[in-house]
Specification:
alpha/beta; Ribosomal Protein L4, Chain: A; 2 domains
């Protein structure tokens, strides 16, 4: 099988400010946050309706409720509230520019590969691992295939550090976080044409 190493991408993929990639990755990771961490304050914890003991005469510090933050089972002072929205907006143009920059970085470092097609007929992980070992020698792989079939997906899914996606799923975060990217020809054409 012929493996093409792409060293240069078209003109519009070059001379892009790397700050675009930084902004995209920051927004992408922020948007992955669930923001569901939540604690109850002393007013929300059940119980603690009456004064635990009288104010004076016992030689102890005065207490108004057993649900104050310093009591076991009490409320939490200044804890996380799930009222916060972590999502960040990023423009479509900036998304495209960030992806172009990430792909161009891979091309300049000779880590962008194009193969005629990625297909594992047997659907076996052993065959997929053998295919990768014979044709490439990298730490991890992002494989972009135009037409995803079940057998190929099943073959690659159990290999550590390998992720198989379609061109529509490709984004600047994936392109930057993986050491090398393998495209099939149809997927590469789609991504280059935009």
């Amino acid at each position: 099988m012929s493996v093409k190493v792409i060293n240069q991408l078209p003109e519009d993929f070059q001379n892009i400010n790397p700050h675009n990639l930084y902004l995209y990755v920051k927004a992408y990771l922020a948007n992955q946050r669930a923001g569901t961490a939540h604690t109850k304050t002393r007013g929300e914890v059940s119980g603690g309706g009456r004064k635990p003991f009288r104010q004076k005469g016992l030689g102890r510090a005065r207490q108004g409720s057993i649900r104050a933050p310093h009591f076991v089972g009490g409320g939490v002072a200044h804890g996380p509230r799930n009222e916060r929205d972590w999502s960040q907006k990023i423009n479509k143009k900036q998304k495209r520019v960030a992806l172009k920059y990430a792909l161009n970085e891979k091309a300049e470092n000779s880590k962008l590969y194009v193969v005629p097609e990625v297909k594992i007929e047997s659907g076996k992980t052993k065959d997929a691992a053998k295919w990768l070992k014979e044709n490439f020698n990298e730490r991890d792989y992002l494989i972009v295939v135009d037409n995803m079939d079940d057998k190929t997906y099943l073959a690659f899914r159990n290999i550590p550090n390998v992720w198989v996606i379609t061109p529509e799923e490709l984004n600047a975060y994936y392109a930057s976080v993986f050491k090398s990217i393998i495209f099939d020809e149809a997927a590469f054409e789609k991504v280059i044409k935009g």
